[in-house]
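User: Hi! I have a protein structure encoded as tokens and I'd like to know what sequence might fold into it. I'm fairly new to this, so please keep things simple.
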């Protein structure tokens, strides 16, 4: 009998204790949530991980696979790392490709930075299209070669067209 009573008591405790524990957890969740919501607690800003891309200087803000610091992919006919050269080697020697695939009169070997567009070559008119049209490594610079101050990230690669100096002066919060 006493064993049965203690079993009943234990079962009751298991239920009530579990409920009490859950209530404690709930109240601690609420406390946590209110702590997180409190404006008095400053947000901790973590440093960017090493190896993260530069914040500014995107030469093609329509393609998330193109930005300063991206690996140059030799053979695709594009300037992937925004140095103004397409398909240069690991030592930044220009491509030896003399095929002129897009027929604009410029080969990769003589400075075409995009061999898929007849409108993009050294000396082409720079237009406001988020792309480096004249192969100087800058997208949408003005006629005096002042860099774009566009601080929006149009392609989602976290690199904007405005150079780092402009970025640092407060155009955009990452
Ligand atoms: Ca390049
Ligand atoms: Ca071209
Ligand atoms: Ca340009
Ligand atoms: Ca452009």
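Assistant: Happy to help. Inverse folding works backwards from shape to sequence: for each of the 174 positions I chose a residue that suits the local structure. Here it is:
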């Amino acid at each position: 009998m006493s064993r049965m009573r203690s079993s009943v008591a234990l079962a009751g405790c298991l239920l009530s204790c579990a409920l009490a524990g859950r209530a404690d957890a709930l109240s601690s969740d609420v406390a946590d949530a209110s702590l997180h919501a409190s404006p008095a607690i400053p947000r901790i800003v973590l440093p960017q991980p090493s190896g993260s891309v530069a914040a500014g200087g995107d030469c093609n803000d329509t393609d998330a696979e193109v930005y300063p610091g991206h690996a140059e992919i030799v053979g695709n006919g594009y300037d992937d790392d925004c140095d103004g050269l397409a398909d240069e080697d690991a030592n930044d020697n220009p491509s030896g490709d003399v095929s002129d695939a897009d027929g604009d009169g410029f080969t990769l070997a003589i400075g075409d930075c995009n061999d898929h567009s007849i409108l993009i070559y050294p000396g082409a008119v720079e237009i406001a299209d988020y792309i480096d049209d004249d192969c100087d490594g800058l997208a949408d610079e003005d006629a005096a070669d002042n860099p774009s101050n566009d601080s929006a990230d149009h392609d989602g690669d976290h690199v904007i067209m405005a150079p780092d100096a402009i970025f640092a002066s407060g155009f955009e919060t990452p």
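A useful reference point when you look it over: Residues 126-127, 129, 131, 133, 139-140 surround calcium ion (ligand 4) (CB under 6 Å). Feel free to ask if any position seems puzzling.
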